[in-house]
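ornithine decarboxylase: structure, please.
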Amino acid sequence: MKVTNVNLDERIHVLKSTSTFMSVIKEIAESGMQEEAFYVLDVGDIVRKHQIWKEKLPRVHPFYAVKCNDSLPVLEVLAAIGVGFDCASKNEINKVLDLGVDTDRIIFANPAKPSSHIRHAESVGVRLMTVDNESELYKIKRIFPSAKIVLRIRCDSELAQCQLGMKFGCDPVYDAPTLLRLAKVLDLDVIGISFHVGSGCQDPPVYNRAIAHSRTLFDLATDIGFKPYLLDLGGGYPGDRGTSIDVFADVINDSLDQYFPSDDVHVIAEPGRFYVASAFTLATCIHSKRVVRANVNDPDKVTHHMYYINDGVYGSFNCLLYDHQHVTPIPLRPGSGKLVPSSIWGPTCDGLDQVVDNVMLHEMELGDWIIFENMGAYTLPVASPFNGFPIPKVHVVADESMWYVNFYDNMFERNNFTSIFLKI
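Here you go.
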């Protein structure tokens, strides 16, 4: 990749065999024309994640959670390779529809929807939507009575980055049967059951409990007079570099074989961070530095270095506040000598704008770059230009090897994927 003008509206750069996404980061950072923080998005990482998903969870069709990262290149790639989409608002629905995605590849997976958003879903033909309370059933009956309803139950993981059960999901034993009967009285069409164990789940066996509850409710729905055919496993799947969904897949596949052995039930899930967390790497530059010395009795002894970078918790690192993330700083230039206790701070005037509290680093200087991996999930969608600092630009790259990955269900997906590169 030749860096000529960092202000160019770049699309996808196909890397030569001698290049990597890290070499792209170094070339941009060392070009002398880059002062702001920036991302490099490795499209190949997303494509490989999709291959892993299809190999490990062959019965489960992914509906990507748009809220996790709604960057246009991400949505374009996922749309092209046939992934469905979990949308939470009319704006997210519109973003996906603008890419030419069919409405049957969208689930309106927000159990508490504004009336105007339900009306919009009806107007564009998005019929599949989740519900977890009586009020929502009455609302849908009034606004969109022909909607296809998925009842969302609560089954919380004890270990998750973000718990969701305190806000969404009805009790599968006490509330769900009542809601199914009410839906029947209202002449609504309940076509399935969904759950979400929590974002960033670290408790794979919870999927077995949730699928077991879903089986019970499928049977009850059938007895009441519905014809359920959709099971939505929600999200929670890890996506950082070095993580694996193997244990999750083992639990889910075994549970599906036990409780839903027939192929007449369509199984979907709502992965977010799995697809994008490791695909984004953030590069930040040190623009200021403060040396903290011991005390008046030993004024020459340095006890701490404070580094100020050009992105912070009001920008990409909002994930520290909202997603309970832990980030690891990686100096772009290898250091040497003694390691010094250090902290890393964002660029704003807010004292809460701290990225890393305490880390041992070799001494760095103004203009040095610090890299942060696994920055694709719940970062850019929430970033703001607070204090006038810009949201980092995304440089999109793809390695040639992805062209030899054979996971497409049909030639239409392959042609769609190829067409993205024609926009370069």
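Notes: The longest helix spans residues 206-224.
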